Each structure stands twice: as structure tokens, then as C-alpha cells.
Amino acid sequence: MSKQFMFDALRQAIDEEMLNNQRVFVLGEDIGHYGGSYKVTKDLHVKYGDLRILDTPIAENSFTGMAIGAAMTGLRPIVEGMNMSFLLLAFNQISNNAGMLRYTSGGNFSIPLVIRGPGGVGRQLGAEHSQRLEAYFQAIPGLKIVACSTPYNAKGLLKSAIRDDNPVIFFEHVLLYNLQEDLPDSEYFLPLDKAEIVREGNELTIITYSRMRYHVTQAVDVLMQEGYNPEVIDLISLKPIDIETVSKSIKKTHKVIIVEECMKTGGIGAELIAQINDHCFDYLDAPVIRLSSQDIPTPYNGTLEKATVIHPQQIIEAAKNLVGIKI
After folding, report:
1. Which of 79, 188, 239, 300 could pair with 115 as two cysteines, CB 3.0-4.6 Å apart?
2. What is the DSSP letter of 141?
3. Helices (H), the chain
4. Transketolase-like pyrimidine-binding domain location, by residue (predicted)?
């Protein structure tokens, strides 16, 4: 075991998979000699050369299309979005090509492609650099969507994503790169379609993902001190949603809070509520509570930015209202 930052865990995953398979390569803006905006590809160009760690022009639509074409020919590209918001410029390529080509070619082509990079609300990055695109991509058929949340799951999930024969959108939160955790020295993989039970409990189910996992953890620490016993689930897989794990928890607790950084309207929480109603409606003792970001562009002003996202105190209050104040 050795303690690693999240950006190092991601770098190790890429390094190990590039060493294992010469068809794996990385492309994106400033990923080569500069090492990436968050140093996920630092020094990899020295080891693998400039054709496997490929610096691209500022042309997201073009290099994403090139990566999809490379995947069709049998290579395994990893596209780094310097900021995931920039990939809106490649939305056509991702939706009409990456998501559909396996189907529209009658299975003649597979698209083993990973699109990864930082997203979410940072610290005063402004509206265009603080977007949460998971809901944008969730409606696209043919994609898998993963949101890592710890150094451990970041490495195991990215290695699995690189080996998957389907296009995977891999979200890393901009404020989690400096998290540290002990990682195994031996190789490991994690499933792309499974949620993680962060804490077992029997009083209510709190479902979250990405950075909000840590806001939920802070809230749960307070709730436990006051005698509450919540179960916490980190979705990890945003598409497909692991409704089996979610359903099993709800059948035990009968109460649900969803905590997300995504926007409320049309967000991941909205889809999750729909699936919960489809599978678990008869087990609910109360309506599902959804704590989501405000439906506005993220302000640059720090105080206003903070007000747009959910914080631990709001989670604590929601849990108490749902379960009932304990005396």
C-alpha cells in the first residue's frame, strides 16, 4: 500500500494500461510536454513518445472525431478534456458518432473510447468552467457514464474503462484531484456499473456521487452523533444506474435523500427518482427528497457560487425532517 493523490492514481491507471497495450494512447490539449492541466499525464510523453501522448490543437470537435475514428480501427484512445465543459464543442461527435456507431454499423465497429477530465463547480472558475455535464450526456444511447470520487475508485474504474469496448464518459471533479488515499501495490479493477455502499444504515438512504460524497460524509458524521443511522450510497455509475443496489437499500430504510451537484431540472437526481418510482414506489414511506444545485449559471462571485450548491447543513436538516427530530 502507498498513499497517492487522485491525480497520481489516474496517472498510474493510464500508465499501466499503456504499458499493457500498445493500442492505448492519449490525446488532448496540453497533455504532453505540459503534463495536463491537473498533471494526470505528467512525464508520460517521455516514456511513450509524442505519438502516444498526443498534444492537439484547441479543436475539440476535430480531435474527438479523430479519436472515434481511431477507436473504429482498433485503437483505444483516451481523450482528455482540459475542462469537460469544452466537450460541448464535440457534442455532435460524442452523440451522433461515439454513441451510435456500434448500432448503426450493425455491430461491425466497436468504439473502445474513454473521454475523461475535470468538471463540476470549482472555486470561482466562472459559469462556463463550472458546468456539470453528466445530465447532458445521460440521454445519449450507447454511452457509459462514470463519476469517480476517491483515489482508489478513480484508478480501478479508469483501468476498467480503458479496457471496455464501449465509449465511456469518465468524470473527475476539479476539487478532488488532491485527495490522498492508500492504494494497493497490486493491480486491481472496479466494475463500471456498480454503486458503492459507503456506509450501511437502516434509517434512511442517502444517494450521492462525486464531490457531494464528502458533503454527505460530513453531514452523516453529525447525524450519527445525534443518534441517526443513515445508509450512504455513492452511485459511481451514472449510466447505467445501479438500481439493484439502490432498491435493496430502499427496501430496508423506506426513506431516500438524493444529494447531487447536478442541476435540479433534468439532472441525475430526476432520472434516479423516476427509476425509484418504477422499482420501489411501494416501499417508500415518504416522497424522495432531492437536494440539487440551483438552476442558474454558476456565479463567479465566491459567496454566490457557494449558495448555488448543496452543503452539509442542508443535508442534516433534510435528514432530520425526513426521519423526524430525535429527542
Report:
1. 79
2. T
3. 6-20, 44-48, 60-72, 91-92, 101-104, 134-138, 151-163, 212-225, 243-253, 268-280, 302-308, 312-323
4. 4-179
Q: How is domain 196-323 classified at the CATH fold level?
A: Rossmann fold (3.40.50)
Residue 273, classed as helix, strand or coil, is helix
Catalytic residue among 29, 60, 172, 231: 60
Catalytic residue check, 172: no
Amino acid letter, 68: I
243 contact partners, CB below 8 Å, separation of at least 6: 275, 276, 279
Q: Are 235 and 275 in contact (CB under 8 A)?
A: no
Which position has the grid cell 479493477? 189
Active-site residue 173, yes or no? no
- Stretch(es) of the chain classified as CATH 3.40.50.920: 196-323
Residues of the chain with CATH 3.40.50.970: 2-183
**Which pLDDT belongs to residue 223?**
96
Residue 211's Cα: distance from chain center in Å?
A: 9
Kindly tell me the burial class for residue 182, based on how many C-beta atoms sit within 10 Å of its own C-beta (0-12, 13-18, 19 or more).
exposed
Cβ–Cβ < 8 Å for 222, 312: yes
pLDDT at 327 over 60: no
**DSSP assignments along 70-111, one per residue:** HHHTT-EEEEEPSSGGGGGGGHHIIIIIITTHHHHTTTS---
Active-site position among 29, 45, 129, 196:
129
Q: Are 75 and 115 in contact (CB under 8 A)?
A: no
* Superfamily (CATH) of domain 2-183: Thiamin diphosphate (ThDP)-binding fold, Pyr/PP domains (3.40.50.970)
Predicted confidence (pLDDT) at residue 325 exceeds the cutoff of 80: no
Provide the 8-state DSSP code for 126.
-
Q: Per-residue pLDDT for 326 more than 70?
A: no
Q: How far apart are the first and last CA of the chain?
A: 43
